[in-house]
Amino acid sequence: MTQDLSSNNSDTVYLKDYQSPAYAIEKTDLDVAIYPGESFVEARLQLVRQSGLVSELALDGEQLELLAIEINSQSLSKDQYRLDDGKLVLIEPPERFELYTKVRIQPEQNTSLEGLYRSRTIYCTQCEAEGFRKITYYLDRPDVMSDFTTRISAAKSECPILLANGNLVEQGDLTDGRHYAVWHDPHKKPCYLFALVAGDLSVMEDHFVTASGRNVDLKIYVEEKDLDKCDHAMASLKNAMRWDEEVYGREYDLDIFMIVAVDDFNMGAMENKGLNIFNTSCVLAKPETTTDAGFQRVEGVVAHEYFHNWSGNRVTCRDWFQLSLKEGFTVYRDAEFSADMGSPTVKRVEDVAMLRTHQFAEDAGPMAHPIRPASYMEISNFYTLTIYEKGAEVVRMLANLLGPELFRKGTDLYFERHDGQAVTTEDFVQALADVSGRDFSVFQRWYNQAGTPQLEVRDEYDENTREYTLHITQSTPATPECADKQPFHIPIAMGLLGDAGEIALKLRDEELEDLPTDNTHRVLELTEQAQSFVFTDVPEKPVPSLLRGFSAPVKLKFAYSRDDLVRLALRDSDGFNRYEACQRLALGVIEDALAADSGGELNNFTPDERLLAVYQQLLQEEGLDRAMLAYMLLLPSEGFIAEQQSVIDPIAIHRARGEVAGYIAKALHKPLLAVLENYDLRKPYKPTAVDIAARLLKNTALEFLMREPDQAVVDLCVKHLQQANNMTDELASLTALVNSRSPLAADIAPQKLADFYAKWQDESLVVNAWLALQARNANPGGVERVEALLAHPAFEANNPNKIRSVVGVFANANPVNFHGGTDADPEAGYRFLADQVIALDSKNPQIAARLITPLTRWRRYDKQRGGAMRGQLERIKHTPGLSSDSNEIVSKSL
Ligand code: 0A1
Ligand code: ZN
């Protein structure tokens, strides 16, 4: 039997083909010797056969130069192995043996940022999902778990710090100014969790005492210039460690926990056992250089990676189809952590806005896939919003269906039952079913069917019987993997609002004595295609508050009148649904403007006054969370509005939204200005929920006012820019100035941009924000602007953060310019993006493939626009030597 279970670059890998590994690797001994321009990796693997006879064993290996190979200390002859494309095949290997290989690799040349590579002066690794095969020949799959010992050697002057997973067991000097360190990880792990780091790093140290009284050394390694930006990450780490003990009963399990920050990183961060490696953007923070969003991201990502120690590392994935097992669960855990650290409703609003704009679009596009896909070509393309964010929504539904106590029992059982194992999403759901006795067979469909279900809700009230009925049907559009969907299990949290407030709920079959004391909130469980729920003793026709807290990742259709929405916006007890009602109201008004625009009547358009009336009341409401107020005032984003249209016209959406926003800014000038004037610019910065909320509201007001500002408002904006004591306020003022269409702002914006750059040019992360704000600028000339940014000395062509800040932001967050709305050449944006993808593809295929996303949505646009986008996809497709990453995205979307 030929054992070849890893993915072959050009082929599709199927979940149904899964076979358990033919060999286990009991021990992995690595010796990594780093030299300028080349490194040598010697590996000694103790392999043990797991099943019957194996005639050939294929180990994964890419971009390796094999220098030596031995089995049980005997060199192999040419008939005992062969090198196939990306594989080392051992012929008739013994039942139990030591494999020794020595390979040469070139980290300095490695621009893919997978395997061992060099980021500025630091050598580091990225092995998830399949990067370890670029370090040595191995069974590079998550269900092969091994005991790792790593010896690293390098020049002491270049690389005084040598780190790997686990505990330091030995270190010392060598000849020629070199030194070495040996690390041993006592926990068996798959190779995707392997890490090593070598470089000249400074360290911030602290410690944490676990619930059972063990001391853990905490270390954050950064370049010396960044040592003053580690406090927030360290505090977040300690909060996360405590929270995981309290909420999930999970203690840390090594004596040392390390974080290393590197500038060149494909993703946000990586949970390698005991040695997390972070993109600098997700670990460094200080008030002068980091926005509130940045602080929150650091807190969230530090927690996310830490939480993986249990949900991912102690219990890992059997294969990469199970990716959401660790990612969906861990995102759910980090979201709940952030909610507990700040405001739960605000966090929910932010997460849902992102999910509905971006994940729903993914689920409706050519790359739609279930949270547990059945096949993939390139696993790197499946680190998606669906796996992460929708995966977290699915775990959230399970947690809510069980309630906090049973869910905790279920996760305890899951961790205990599967500690040290590589498992599947079924194992996770089974543990929850076992503790609760619940039947999750219908629920399992969330794991296997893609697409966003749509709920259509109709209501009926009978004055005579005082019965109120909700008729609910569900349907899910076809997606590439499946046209005919079976019904989902959908929890619908709800309440009913009467004239005088919330109505007590009693479903027809319920006994009064079984009802909870707080009886105004209920979770309906929809498991069939159509169901009706009848409430009795309902004194008047209510307004239903449906899907409270966004209890399921679905689209909800209900024919709310505008008056219904006003009632919900002002009076619902569910904070999320108050926000939701504002969004629906605003969306309706923007759609009115779109209709006026298509009739050539936008100039004469006046928005429905109920929207303004709601905003006015909200601005006066006492005790309303300032962040919630800001989000309730913010109009739905252009991306969200686009998602609601059958044919997207991004230019019309930009115009219509702008018109409504301008109108609001004028009508609410006084209260918005008051928000700005009452803001204390000198208050020392703190990233607390209350202070973040105050800044968010002030900067929302500023954005509105700067749409059509008078000189006094422009002066105020400049004052805020100059006197800001933190990056949130500084950047918000500069953004408002740059985005404003007023000549009063346009006259001074270029100078302010230049001043900002001069001030911050040595802070790479601030420069990213400076690039991004220009790439997002919706004023005319977008393509020339981003082209100029690429030529700016601040731009680094191989750095993912810089690429994302310019190319990614332009294509994803500047629809009017990307789609040619302000350009003489309407296809220039698409061509620009395709050019960038083609230029990057051979250097960093993961990032190139991700950039393609906006073009893949071509079917959502009119013929001309869609055709032009498709044309650029064709162009990418015909690039000679196109990577399998980009090829998968392009071929699935054409
Ligand atoms: N597991 C990490 C994310 C991650 C995935 C793939 C990577 O390869 C380039 C890097 C990081 C997480 O969820 O944080
Ligand atoms: Zn993760």
From TrEMBL:
A Pfam family assignment: DUF3458_C
Residue ranges, annotated region (Disordered): 866-894
E.C. code: 3.4.11.2
Record carries keyword Transmembrane: no
Peptidase M1 alanyl aminopeptidase C-terminal domain boundaries: 563-894
InterPro entries given in the database record: Aminopeptidase_N-like_N, Aminopeptidase_N-like_N_sf, PepN_Ig-like_sf, Peptidase_M1, Peptidase_M1_dom, Peptidase_M1_pepN, Peptidase_M1_pepN_C, Peptidase_M1_pepN_C_sf
Cofactor dependency: Zn(2+)
CDD domains: M1_APN
Domain Peptidase M1 membrane alanine aminopeptidase stretches: 233-446
Positions of the Peptidase M1 alanyl aminopeptidase Ig-like fold domain: 451-558
GO molecular function (one): alanyl aminopeptidase activity
GO BP of this protein: proteolysis
Bias (Polar residues): 881-894
This protein's UniProt keywords: Aminopeptidase, Hydrolase, Metal-binding, Metalloprotease, Protease, Zinc
Catalytic activity: Release of an N-terminal amino acid, Xaa-|-Yaa- from a peptide, amide or arylamide. Xaa is preferably Ala, but may be most amino acids including Pro (slow action). When a terminal hydrophobic residue is followed by a prolyl residue, the two may be released as an intact Xaa-Pro dipeptide
Span of domain Aminopeptidase N-like N-terminal: 33-193
Protein purpose: Aminopeptidase N is involved in the degradation of intracellular peptides generated by protein breakdown during normal growth as well as in response to nutrient starvation.
Stated family: Belongs to the peptidase M1 family.
Protein's name according to its UniProt entry: Aminopeptidase N
Organism annotation: Gilvimarinus xylanilyticus
